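Sequence in, structure out.
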Amino acid sequence: MAVVEFSLKDLDKLAGKKLTKEYLEKIPMMGCPLEKLEKDKVLYEIFPNRPDMLSAEGFTRAARTFLGFSKGLI
């Protein structure tokens, strides 16, 4: 399993909304365990069956849908 590091600033920009600690702690419910949460970055473990989530853009697309920020791909 890969552990990926994302800048919180990048995730906020891509999500179009500030991802608070509450949101960041809900993301593991979509199948990517939280490894570490720091002041300016977050590390998640990504399972091999989700290569789309290895980039900040793909990860944020999945998180936006899971957290209810958007309706997902149309």
